[in-house]
Amino acid sequence: SGKSSAGNIILGQNVFNTSIRTAQSEARQQEVFGRQITVVDTPGWWWFFPRENTPKLDQIEIQSSVHLCPPGPNVFLLVIPVGLNFSTLTIPSLKKHLELFNTDVFSHTIVLFTVVAPVSDKRIESNIKANATLKWILHQCGDRKHVLNISNRDDRDQVKLLIEKMETVVGQNRGRPFSVDVSHENALREEIKLLEERASQRKDKAQKQRQKLRALIEGRKKKLFFIFHSIISTLFAAIVVNEIYISSSI
Ligand SMILES: Nc1nc2c(ncn2[C@@H]2O[C@H](COP(=O)(O)OP(=O)(O)O)[C@@H](O)[C@H]2O)c(=O)[nH]1
Ligand SMILES: [Mg+2]
Protein backbone atom coordinates (compact mmCIF):
# COMPACT_ATOMS: atom_id res chain seq x y z
CA SER A 1 0.00 0.00 0.00
CA GLY A 2 3.04 2.24 -0.09
CA LYS A 3 4.45 2.11 3.46
CA SER A 4 8.05 1.39 2.46
CA SER A 5 7.79 3.80 -0.48
CA ALA A 6 6.51 6.53 1.84
CA GLY A 7 9.47 5.87 4.19
CA ASN A 8 11.89 6.27 1.29
CA ILE A 9 10.24 9.50 0.16
CA ILE A 10 10.27 10.99 3.65
CA LEU A 11 13.99 10.21 4.10
CA GLY A 12 14.77 11.18 0.48
CA GLN A 13 16.70 7.92 0.06
CA ASN A 14 16.06 4.39 -1.14
CA VAL A 15 16.60 2.65 2.18
CA PHE A 16 13.55 0.41 2.40
CA ASN A 17 13.07 -2.38 -0.12
CA THR A 18 9.82 -1.91 -2.06
CA SER A 19 10.20 -4.95 -4.30
CA ILE A 20 9.62 -7.50 -1.55
CA ARG A 21 7.16 -7.79 1.31
CA THR A 22 8.44 -6.14 4.51
CA ALA A 23 8.85 -9.05 6.92
CA GLN A 24 10.92 -7.30 9.58
CA SER A 25 10.52 -3.86 11.08
CA GLU A 26 13.46 -1.64 10.21
CA ALA A 27 14.57 1.79 11.41
CA ARG A 28 16.50 4.32 9.29
CA GLN A 29 17.66 7.77 10.26
CA GLN A 30 18.31 10.85 8.18
CA GLU A 31 18.39 14.61 8.50
CA VAL A 32 15.33 15.99 6.72
CA PHE A 33 14.73 19.74 6.53
CA GLY A 34 17.06 20.28 9.46
CA ARG A 35 15.39 17.66 11.66
CA GLN A 36 16.87 14.29 12.61
CA ILE A 37 14.11 11.92 11.53
CA THR A 38 13.90 8.20 12.32
CA VAL A 39 11.48 6.28 10.13
CA VAL A 40 10.46 2.79 11.23
CA ASP A 41 9.07 0.65 8.43
CA THR A 42 6.83 -2.26 9.50
CA PRO A 43 4.96 -5.16 7.92
CA GLY A 44 1.29 -4.43 7.25
CA TRP A 45 -2.04 -6.21 7.46
CA TRP A 46 -5.05 -6.70 5.19
CA TRP A 47 -7.86 -4.20 5.73
CA PHE A 48 -10.56 -6.76 4.99
CA PHE A 49 -9.35 -9.67 7.14
CA PRO A 50 -9.39 -10.14 10.92
CA ARG A 51 -6.18 -9.97 12.93
CA GLU A 52 -6.03 -13.79 13.11
CA ASN A 53 -5.20 -13.74 9.38
CA THR A 54 -2.09 -11.65 10.01
CA PRO A 55 0.91 -13.99 10.57
CA LYS A 56 1.95 -14.08 14.24
CA LEU A 57 5.49 -13.01 13.30
CA ASP A 58 4.16 -9.93 11.47
CA GLN A 59 2.06 -9.04 14.51
CA ILE A 60 5.09 -9.24 16.79
CA GLU A 61 7.20 -7.25 14.31
CA ILE A 62 4.53 -4.53 14.25
CA GLN A 63 4.36 -4.60 18.03
CA SER A 64 8.12 -4.47 18.55
CA SER A 65 8.63 -1.68 15.97
CA VAL A 66 8.07 0.98 18.65
CA HIS A 67 11.25 -0.19 20.39
CA LEU A 68 13.35 0.70 17.35
CA CYS A 69 13.12 4.45 18.02
CA PRO A 70 13.68 5.06 21.75
CA PRO A 71 12.22 6.66 23.82
CA GLY A 72 9.22 5.98 21.54
CA PRO A 73 7.68 7.21 18.30
CA ASN A 74 6.29 10.74 18.18
CA VAL A 75 3.99 10.06 15.28
CA PHE A 76 2.34 7.03 13.70
CA LEU A 77 1.55 7.21 9.99
CA LEU A 78 -1.45 5.10 9.09
CA VAL A 79 -0.89 4.46 5.39
CA ILE A 80 -4.03 4.12 3.27
CA PRO A 81 -3.89 4.05 -0.53
CA VAL A 82 -6.48 6.40 -2.02
CA GLY A 83 -9.41 4.50 -3.52
CA LEU A 84 -8.96 1.47 -1.27
CA ASN A 85 -12.17 -0.52 -0.85
CA PHE A 86 -13.01 -1.07 2.79
CA SER A 87 -15.22 -3.79 4.20
CA THR A 88 -17.25 -4.26 7.37
CA LEU A 89 -14.16 -5.95 8.82
CA THR A 90 -11.91 -2.90 8.34
CA ILE A 91 -12.71 -1.11 11.60
CA PRO A 92 -12.70 -4.22 13.87
CA SER A 93 -9.47 -5.34 12.20
CA LEU A 94 -7.85 -1.91 12.65
CA LYS A 95 -8.93 -1.81 16.31
CA LYS A 96 -7.57 -5.32 16.90
CA HIS A 97 -4.24 -4.54 15.24
CA LEU A 98 -3.86 -1.32 17.19
CA GLU A 99 -4.37 -3.32 20.39
CA LEU A 100 -0.82 -4.50 19.67
CA PHE A 101 0.15 -1.06 21.03
CA ASN A 102 -1.23 0.96 23.92
CA THR A 103 -4.58 2.66 23.68
CA ASP A 104 -3.37 6.16 22.81
CA VAL A 105 -2.14 5.33 19.30
CA PHE A 106 -4.77 7.50 17.63
CA SER A 107 -3.65 10.64 19.45
CA HIS A 108 -0.27 10.25 17.75
CA THR A 109 -1.58 9.24 14.34
CA ILE A 110 -1.75 11.01 10.98
CA VAL A 111 -3.58 9.24 8.16
CA LEU A 112 -1.20 9.15 5.21
CA PHE A 113 -3.02 8.79 1.92
CA THR A 114 -0.73 7.39 -0.74
CA VAL A 115 -1.32 8.06 -4.43
CA VAL A 116 0.68 7.22 -7.55
CA ALA A 117 -0.63 10.12 -9.65
CA PRO A 118 -1.50 13.72 -8.75
CA VAL A 119 -4.91 13.96 -7.13
CA SER A 120 -6.93 17.04 -6.21
CA ASP A 121 -7.91 17.86 -2.62
CA LYS A 122 -11.50 17.95 -3.86
CA ARG A 123 -11.34 14.30 -4.94
CA ILE A 124 -9.83 13.26 -1.60
CA GLU A 125 -12.55 15.16 0.28
CA SER A 126 -15.36 13.63 -1.78
CA ASN A 127 -13.79 10.19 -1.26
CA ILE A 128 -13.87 10.71 2.49
CA LYS A 129 -17.43 12.07 2.42
CA ALA A 130 -18.64 8.97 0.57
CA ASN A 131 -16.92 6.54 2.93
CA ALA A 132 -18.20 6.09 6.49
CA THR A 133 -15.26 3.84 7.47
CA LEU A 134 -12.71 6.39 6.31
CA LYS A 135 -14.63 9.14 8.14
CA TRP A 136 -14.52 7.08 11.34
CA ILE A 137 -10.78 6.44 11.05
CA LEU A 138 -10.04 10.11 10.38
CA HIS A 139 -12.25 11.18 13.26
CA GLN A 140 -10.25 8.89 15.61
CA CYS A 141 -7.06 10.54 14.35
CA GLY A 142 -8.33 14.06 15.06
CA ASP A 143 -8.89 14.54 11.31
CA ARG A 144 -5.12 14.68 10.72
CA LYS A 145 -4.27 13.62 7.21
CA HIS A 146 -1.72 14.10 4.47
CA VAL A 147 -1.57 13.07 0.81
CA LEU A 148 1.75 11.72 -0.47
CA ASN A 149 2.40 11.07 -4.14
CA ILE A 150 4.77 8.09 -3.92
CA SER A 151 5.66 8.23 -7.59
CA ASN A 152 6.96 11.79 -7.33
CA ARG A 153 10.23 11.60 -5.44
CA ASP A 154 11.28 15.08 -6.56
CA ASP A 155 8.42 16.81 -4.81
CA ARG A 156 10.09 17.67 -1.50
CA ASP A 157 7.35 20.19 -0.63
CA GLN A 158 4.94 17.33 0.11
CA VAL A 159 7.51 15.95 2.61
CA LYS A 160 8.12 19.37 4.16
CA LEU A 161 4.40 19.80 4.71
CA LEU A 162 4.16 16.31 6.26
CA ILE A 163 7.00 17.08 8.67
CA GLU A 164 5.25 20.30 9.69
CA LYS A 165 2.09 18.29 10.39
CA MET A 166 4.18 15.83 12.44
CA GLU A 167 5.55 18.71 14.48
CA THR A 168 1.99 19.85 15.19
CA VAL A 169 1.24 16.35 16.55
CA VAL A 170 4.32 16.55 18.78
CA GLY A 171 3.06 19.93 20.05
CA GLN A 172 -0.44 18.56 20.65
CA ASN A 173 1.05 15.77 22.77
CA ARG A 174 3.22 18.34 24.61
CA GLY A 175 6.38 16.73 23.25
CA ARG A 176 5.59 13.41 24.91
CA PRO A 177 6.31 10.48 22.61
CA PHE A 178 4.01 7.50 22.47
CA SER A 179 4.66 5.56 25.67
CA VAL A 180 6.64 2.37 25.22
CA ASP A 181 6.98 -0.39 27.79
CA VAL A 182 10.73 -1.05 27.63
CA SER A 183 10.42 -4.22 29.73
CA HIS A 184 8.27 -5.66 26.96
CA GLU A 185 11.09 -5.49 24.40
CA ASN A 186 13.04 -8.56 25.57
CA ALA A 187 9.90 -10.67 25.87
CA LEU A 188 9.01 -9.77 22.26
CA ARG A 189 12.51 -10.59 21.07
CA GLU A 190 12.29 -14.01 22.77
CA GLU A 191 8.90 -14.61 21.16
CA ILE A 192 10.30 -13.76 17.72
CA LYS A 193 13.25 -16.15 18.29
CA LEU A 194 10.91 -18.94 19.34
CA LEU A 195 8.60 -18.45 16.34
CA GLU A 196 11.57 -18.34 13.96
CA GLU A 197 12.98 -21.55 15.47
CA ARG A 198 9.61 -23.25 15.11
CA ALA A 199 9.33 -22.06 11.50
CA SER A 200 12.79 -23.45 10.75
CA GLN A 201 11.89 -26.79 12.38
CA ARG A 202 8.72 -26.93 10.28
CA LYS A 203 10.83 -26.22 7.17
CA ASP A 204 13.23 -29.09 8.06
CA LYS A 205 10.32 -31.45 8.64
CA ALA A 206 8.71 -30.49 5.32
CA GLN A 207 12.03 -30.99 3.53
CA LYS A 208 12.44 -34.49 5.06
CA GLN A 209 8.87 -35.35 4.06
CA ARG A 210 9.57 -34.18 0.50
CA GLN A 211 12.73 -36.34 0.37
CA LYS A 212 10.78 -39.36 1.66
CA LEU A 213 8.06 -38.81 -0.92
CA ARG A 214 10.63 -38.45 -3.71
CA ALA A 215 12.31 -41.75 -2.66
CA LEU A 216 8.91 -43.43 -2.60
CA ILE A 217 8.05 -42.15 -6.10
CA GLU A 218 11.48 -43.24 -7.44
CA GLY A 219 10.94 -46.71 -5.90
CA ARG A 220 7.50 -46.98 -7.51
CA LYS A 221 8.92 -46.00 -10.90
CA LYS A 222 11.54 -48.80 -10.65
CA LYS A 223 8.87 -51.31 -9.60
CA LEU A 224 6.65 -50.29 -12.51
CA PHE A 225 9.52 -50.70 -14.94
CA PHE A 226 10.20 -54.18 -13.55
CA ILE A 227 6.54 -55.21 -13.92
CA PHE A 228 6.38 -53.81 -17.45
CA HIS A 229 9.60 -55.57 -18.30
CA SER A 230 8.30 -58.92 -17.02
CA ILE A 231 5.06 -58.54 -19.00
CA ILE A 232 7.06 -58.02 -22.19
CA SER A 233 9.24 -61.05 -21.46
CA THR A 234 6.17 -63.22 -20.80
CA LEU A 235 4.53 -62.11 -24.05
CA PHE A 236 7.71 -62.81 -25.91
CA ALA A 237 7.95 -66.25 -24.37
CA ALA A 238 4.30 -66.92 -25.29
CA ILE A 239 4.92 -66.03 -28.90
CA VAL A 240 7.95 -68.26 -29.00
CA VAL A 241 5.98 -71.13 -27.46
CA ASN A 242 3.17 -70.53 -29.92
CA GLU A 243 5.55 -70.60 -32.85
CA ILE A 244 7.06 -73.83 -31.68
CA TYR A 245 3.58 -75.27 -31.26
CA ILE A 246 2.54 -74.10 -34.74
CA SER A 247 5.70 -75.41 -36.33
CA SER A 248 5.43 -78.75 -34.62
CA SER A 249 1.82 -79.18 -35.76
CA ILE A 250 2.64 -78.77 -39.44
N1 LIG B 1 -0.68 1.54 -8.38
C1 LIG B 1 -0.32 1.65 -7.11
N2 LIG B 1 0.87 1.17 -6.73
C2 LIG B 1 1.23 1.27 -5.43
C3 LIG B 1 0.40 1.87 -4.45
N3 LIG B 1 1.02 1.81 -3.26
C4 LIG B 1 2.19 1.17 -3.49
N4 LIG B 1 2.33 0.87 -4.78
C5 LIG B 1 3.46 0.18 -5.40
O1 LIG B 1 3.53 -1.13 -4.84
C6 LIG B 1 4.89 -1.49 -4.65
C7 LIG B 1 5.15 -1.87 -3.20
O2 LIG B 1 5.07 -0.71 -2.41
P1 LIG B 1 5.61 -0.66 -0.93
O3 LIG B 1 5.90 0.76 -0.62
O4 LIG B 1 6.74 -1.63 -0.75
O5 LIG B 1 4.32 -1.16 -0.14
P2 LIG B 1 4.23 -1.70 1.35
O6 LIG B 1 4.00 -3.18 1.23
O7 LIG B 1 3.05 -1.00 1.94
O8 LIG B 1 5.51 -1.36 2.04
C8 LIG B 1 5.74 -0.32 -5.13
O9 LIG B 1 6.19 -0.58 -6.43
C9 LIG B 1 4.78 0.84 -5.08
O10 LIG B 1 5.11 1.82 -6.05
C10 LIG B 1 -0.86 2.40 -4.88
O11 LIG B 1 -1.63 2.96 -4.11
N5 LIG B 1 -1.17 2.26 -6.21
MG1 LIG C 1 6.79 -2.57 2.98
UniProtKB/TrEMBL annotation:
Keyword field contains Transit peptide: no
Annotated transmembrane regions: 224-246
Domain of life: Eukaryota
Keywords carried by this UniProt record: Coiled coil, GTP-binding, Membrane, Nucleotide-binding, Transmembrane, Transmembrane helix
Domain AIG1-type G: 1-187
InterPro entries referenced in this protein's UniProt entry, alphabetically: G_AIG1 (IPR006703), GIMA/IAN/Toc (IPR045058), P-loop_NTPase (IPR027417)
Coiled coil: 185-223
One Pfam short name: AIG1
Gene3D superfamilies for this protein: P-loop containing nucleotide triphosphate hydrolases
Gene Ontology molecular function terms on file: GTP binding
Family: Belongs to the TRAFAC class TrmE-Era-EngA-EngB-Septin-like GTPase superfamily. AIG1/Toc34/Toc159-like paraseptin GTPase family. IAN subfamily.
Protein name: AIG1-type G domain-containing protein
